[in-house]
Amino acid sequence: MRLAISATTYRMVLLLRDSHQIQSLVIVTPWWIRSQVLVHTKTPIVMDFPGGKVAFTPEIHFISESNEERVPCYRVLDDNGQQLTNSQFVPVSKEIAVKMYSDMVTLQMMDNIFYEAQRQGRLSFYATAFGEEAINIASAAALSPDDVIFPQYREPGVLLWRGFTLQEFANQCFGNKSDYGKGRQMPVHYGSNKLNYFTVSATIAYSLLTQLLPNAVGAAYSLKMDEKDACAVTFFGDGGSSEGDFHAALNFAAVMEAPVLFICRNNGWAISTPTSDQFRSDGVVVKGRAYGIRSIRVDGNDALAMYSAVHEAREMAIREHRPILIEALTYRVGHHSTSDDSTRYRSADEIEWWNKARNPLSRFRTWVESNGWWSDEAESDLRSKIKKEMLEAIRVAEKTEKPNLNHMFSDVYDVPPLNLREQELLVRQAIKSHPQDYPSDVPL
Amino acid sequence: MASLLSRFCRKLALPGSAHGSRMTSTTACGSETVKSLNLYSAINQALHIALETDPRSYVFGEDVGFGGVFRCTTGLAERFGKNRVFNTPLCEQGIVGFGIGLAAMGNRAVVEIQVADYIYPAFDQIVNEAAKFRYRSGNQFNCGGLTIRAPYGAVGHGGHYHSQSPEAFFCHVPGIKVVIPRSPREAKGLLLSSIRDPNPVVFFEPKWLYRQAVEEVPEHDYMIPLSQAEIIREGSDITLVGWGAQLTVMEQACLDAEKEGISCELIDLKTLLPWDKETVEASVKKTGRLLISHEAPITGGFGAEISATILERCFLKLEAPVSRVCGLDTPFPLVFEPFYMPTKNKASSSSSLSSPSKTHIF
């Protein structure tokens, strides 16, 4: 490139040369014209566009659709529950470790007994969290009680950790008058404002999954504005990451600088849909960067790794006002719900292998016992205690009467409008005329 | 129609009219200071007051920071800061979802959807989350602090995607409220009520009137109650029900009918969900005739709900079938807009509004 330039420009050119942007510089100054400069550019010149500077390249190069290697997965314990050498993790006290393990056992037993109750026709529906006990309990353990939770539907362990009793779980499942939800929703749609756990929204098994994600971002923003030492936490599955709300939420969280943890339970299945039919990216963790979000992939069946990841993520989120994406790799050992028989689309061997070889409970138990904090006796004591409590909780919940009919009409608005008051009268008249059409266990 | 409306709208600045019409709002009479404002300025004033009176309130949406594409949010970011008044990414489901989360934490979130035609990506959040938040949680949680504002309705050249009136979709959702103001003074009072109402509200603003309608608007903080319809013109021969910009058209039809000796009672519904059936019922029992008019397509429009309800309650008092003069069952057209719109002459020619002595089917 041959340029005729002024003295000022000449000085600028020298600066560019000194900054190594220019490969060579030949200055020709014939007496009859000002300096001429031959400039050969070496490296791409940086240019401004809205959004900032980018370097140019003369090569036509497409970024590959995937990295050569998948994002590695953080774990602390090996498959047998032995702590890996050089593993980094946040230390856990005996008290916390024992509570974590006990709650994992409680969750598993609760799931077993409720599942059986549904099979016996005593519950209309249930969804278990088999195989995902570490995600449930360890994440809850790493959070503070002030962190607000926006769950999907496979995280009752978070409520359990915070103190929701087996009786309270049973009341919701049986939809009795002690259910905080007043009998309005299907089983497993728990909620507790006392424990900062927003009521489960998803109509299970259909396409409505991740609506709470953008809500969590708004809540996180509120916590930031109120300068609370707390974050919002929201859970979803591999299937949920395909919903529009996931993308909306991540983008908003990054732009709004909201302290929110996005925890993805990638358990391999969205009902019968394997992840190969769900996305073609390297799982969900790589999507974080696309939105400008710091992300980590964790072994979801490793309680210590989950604990550490969530612990660190929470600190970053609150201190730096940023969202964090955690992809917890795991396996859905149970069926999607009691309305599903997963042996119709996957092999019983596969399920069995994950249940045995990669069981989060046995791995963590090994580690807890290796510290001298657990024993067979403690195990059997715990299990018999839980079983007794569960059976009693179900017995009581089943006996407790249903919520009063007026609760069908309350809470649609803060105060029932006239049309609802009229409709309640009509319904009551209909009940008087044809009582046999209506269940007798709903008090009027 | 444009010249018609603009001529009429300028009339809105004058107090009252010969026929006792109350197109101008009658709230807060007395010695308060008033200022002549157009609709977007009245909305703007309401937003300033809302943010001033509640430090935990927020205004956000696309392009809201610089004042908004319709200037409704002018001056808010400068006055209250970018943490409370801010632009969002271009994503309605995110905007409303984020707003629900803010509201669920006890804040007031006044969300702007740029144009009602773009509200549909947020429909799931509105129907499945906002509307059911309180009910499904057994009143442990609620997102009552959420208000969604959206400009709606014909603007003369808006075509398919800048002219829609989607109110009927939302009137079918228990748990939210739907509010539509007719004028600047009404808009300010209704918007403040909507923002402060403990339930999520969808607030549609007639964009046609943003600049066109000018009215004396009190400067102070005042609220107009929701779910209360207003008889803005008293009459004895026929009841007309409408909302938003369409009331100006219907007012013209009333004036024309007056010349033929027909006395019209015009009702502004204001809140479509839950709607004030009692006021409309009492009026129709008095007049014996009902005409409903809205820009939205006639099939499945909110007029059908009003018609069915009034038929149930006033059947024996009706002297003629209920008339609906509405938009047609087409996407909102561009060149054909003047043919699509429910004009005052269409209203005048309808069977209800023609002289009671004639009984012709339109």
How would you portray this structure in words?
The complex is a heterodimer of chains A (about 450) and B (about 350). In chain A, about 40% of the residues lie in helices and about 15% in strands. Chain A is an alpha/beta fold. In chain A, strands 6-7-8-12-11 form a five-stranded parallel beta sheet, with helices on both faces. Chain A has a three-stranded antiparallel beta sheet with strand order 1-3-2, covered by helices on one side. Chain A has a two-stranded antiparallel ribbon with strand order 4-5. In chain A, strand 4 and strand 5 form a beta hairpin. The longest helix of chain A is centred in the first third of the chain and has 26 residues. Chain A is globular and about 100 Å long. Chain B has two domains: about 180 residues, Thiamin diphosphate (ThDP)-binding fold, Pyr/PP domains (Rossmann fold, 3-Layer(aba) Sandwich), CATH 3.40.50.970; about 120 residues, Rossmann fold. Chain B starts with a helix and ends in a 13-residue tail after the last helix. The chains are: A alpha/beta (about 450), B alpha/beta (about 350). Chain B: This is 3-methyl-2-oxobutanoate dehydrogenase (2-methylpropanoyl-transferring). Chain B: InterPro entries: THDP-binding (IPR029061), Transketo_C/PFOR_II (IPR009014), Transketolase-like_Pyr-bd (IPR005475), Transketolase_C (IPR033248). Chain B: Keywords: Mitochondrion, Oxidoreductase, Transit peptide. Chain B: One of its GO terms (biological process) is response to nutrient.
